[in-house]
Amino acid sequence: MPKIGTVSGVTGGTGALVEVNNPPLLTVYHVGGGFKMLTTASHCARIPRAVGSQIRGIHDLLNVSGKPIISYGPPGRSASGGHVATVFGCTGFLGRYLVAKLAKAGTQVIVPYREEDEKRHLKVMGDLGQIVPMEWDIRRPDQIAECLRHSDTVYNLVGREYETKNFTFGSVHVDGAERIAQIAAESGVSRLVHVSHLNASALSTSAFYKSKAEGEERVKAAFPSATIVRPATMYGYEDRFLNNIAEWPIWWKLNHMKTKVRPVHVMDVAQALSNIFEHPSFPGTVNLPGPSELTYEYVLTLVSSVTYRPPSRIPVVPKRIALLAARAAQNIWWPALSPDEVERRYINDADVPGDWDKVGVEPTEIEDSAITYLRRYRSATNSHRAN
Ligand SMILES: NC(=O)c1ccc[n+]([C@@H]2O[C@H](COP(=O)([O-])OP(=O)(O)OC[C@H]3O[C@@H](n4cnc5c(N)ncnc54)[C@H](OP(=O)(O)O)[C@@H]3O)[C@@H](O)[C@H]2O)c1
């Protein structure tokens, strides 16, 4: 027979939920000013925040304001773990998958955005009030500080593959990253996860990779316990890899298709980032290359065989011509292949071991999911073929 008890002080905001007795017999939902629901709730098991690692850090007990972190609610999307995370760069390709994973685990996620429409899809990834959009500008320290004021964890996913008239690689990957790290350190954020690139190197011939390496150094100087995550080229629905190969095979034939890549599934990277959240502290660098090293030739053949399109017969464009074309393309007003991207098409992915075991993820092979992302490039007659 369930016991009914009086619960006082349940004023912790919309959606607060309290369980009394152990195992829980009574659950009271407090929704916007009145008790709306009373249930016996053995299904409402409470999940402790650090369930993955069973290790607790201070940020699992107190939030940045020094208040105790209390998890409540049923498991899953409607849970509230008491944690708040800010995901800078959430409006991009990787960002949406990370926000979905964090929100699904009951973390309140601050989603800084620049363009109103870019954050609309994020809003529905969490329960009411769990996804909090905030407008920001990477050049405005006050707005960065406002975005991470209540957060115990900050992710920086901000990056750009090409420069614009307003932002150079340096202003985004170096100055912007340093600014976020400094403000996070000053604000008492306990975990900073900075996303760089597997090929980040101060000696690289690519300005993009160089800026990523310099950004890492600045972040480490400003926030010594930061986790630097280095994924290889990612693929998924919104990628600029499989989609681009399917649309513009000519630009992937550079270097006679001999360049080696280690493509990684965006879901695996998002899972790794979300698993880091479970660790009290994760300083250092985490390399996340895909499980296999492939040549562009192999990937072009894979795309061609999955889409049932004949391989491109266009001859290989010499580097000089490709650079000239890319420079000329910078005069149009939509993003086109940049000279630095041409340069990157000649650089093999770094031959370093992956740190997947550290983050508890087993990376998937590209052949296993390529069909999911490439089926749309098939002709109508081929679209329903099994594989
Ligand atoms: N995609 C890959 O294959 C790959 C591989 C390795 C590493 N990475 C790195 O992983 C991170 C996420 O990659 P992604 O593919 O998700 O990138 P993405 O789709 O290009 O998204 C980049 C994000 O950064 C934001 N951003 C770019 N320039 C900005 C600026 N000047 N001010 C404020 N925000 C700015 C974008 O915001 P807006 O929506 O407002 O533009 C967007 O949210 C990046 O750091 C990238 O370099 C990517």
TrEMBL record:
<dbReference type="InterPro" id="IPR001509">
    <property type="entry name" value="Epimerase_deHydtase"/>
</dbReference>
<dbReference type="Pfam" id="PF01370">
    <property type="entry name" value="Epimerase"/>
</dbReference>
<dbReference type="InterPro" id="IPR051207">
    <property type="entry name" value="ComplexI_NDUFA9_subunit"/>
</dbReference>
<dbReference type="GO" id="GO:0044877">
    <property type="term" value="F:protein-containing complex binding"/>
</dbReference>
<dbReference type="GO" id="GO:0005739">
    <property type="term" value="C:mitochondrion"/>
</dbReference>
<protein>
    <recommendedName>
        <fullName>NAD-dependent epimerase/dehydratase domain-containing protein</fullName>
    </recommendedName>
</protein>
<dbReference type="InterPro" id="IPR036291">
    <property type="entry name" value="NAD(P)-bd_dom_sf"/>
</dbReference>
<feature type="domain" description="NAD-dependent epimerase/dehydratase">
    <location>
        <begin position="86"/>
        <end position="281"/>
    </location>
</feature>
